[in-house]
Amino acid sequence: MKMKLHETRNDLKEKTRRAIINLLNQQLACVIDLGLQAKQAHWNVKGPHFIGLHELFDKVAEELEEFSDGIAERAVELGGIALGTIQVVSKNSCLEAYPLSLVSGREHISALSGALAKFGAGAREAIDSAVKVGDADTADLFTEVSRGVDKLLWMIEAHLQAQD
C-alpha cells in the first residue's frame, strides 16, 4: 500500500521522497529502539561504577532522542509521516532485543556497545542509500548521526577497554 504524501514544494522527485521517507522511517525505528535500550541500561545498571554509568547511559539516551527528532522531522519535511509508535518500532527495528536480565555495568556496556555499533553501521548504509537516490541533505543528516553514534560508541567502549 502506497502512503499518501502531504503536499510540499520540496523539489525532490516524488519517487526520491518516497524512497527517502521509507529509509528514514526504518532508521527511526532503530534509533528509538536504541534509545530505549540505553534507558534500560540507565535504569538497571548496578555495581561499583554505578553513578558514572548511570549518567553516561542517560546522556546516550538524550543524544539518541535528538537523532530521532532529526530523522523523524526530515521524513515529515519531505511530505511523509514519521512512524514512531512503539508498535512500529518493535516491528521494524534492526536491533536485537535488549537482554532484560543484565545487571552489571560491564554487561550493559557490552550490550549497549553492540547495539550502538549495529546502528552506526546502518547509519553509514543509509548515507550511501540517500546518495544513490539523489538526496544529499538526508545523506548529510545520516552523516551527522553516524558521527554522533561513533562518539557515543567510543565513550561506551572506553569502559570495556579499561583494565580495572
Write up what this structure looks like.
With 164 residues, this protein is mostly helical. The protein has a single domain, classed as Up-down Bundle (Ferritin), CATH 1.20.1260. It has helices at residues 14-44, 50-77, 86-92, 105-132, 136-161. It is elongated. The mean pLDDT is 95.
Task: Name a few traits of the molecule.
Ferritin, single chain, mainly alpha, 73% helix, 164 residues
Topology (elements, then pairings):
Blueprint: H1 14-44, H2 50-77, H3 86-92, H4 105-132, H5 136-161
Helix pairs in contact: 1-2, 1-3, 1-4, 2-5, 4-5
Average per-residue pLDDT, rounded, comes to 95
Task: Report the sheet-strand fraction.
Answer: under 5%
The helix/strand series, from N terminus to C terminus, equals HHHHH
Low-confidence stretches: none
CATH superfamily: Ferritin, core subunit, four-helix bundle
Enumerate how many helices there are, as a single number: 5
Query: What oligomerization state is this entry in?
Result: single chain
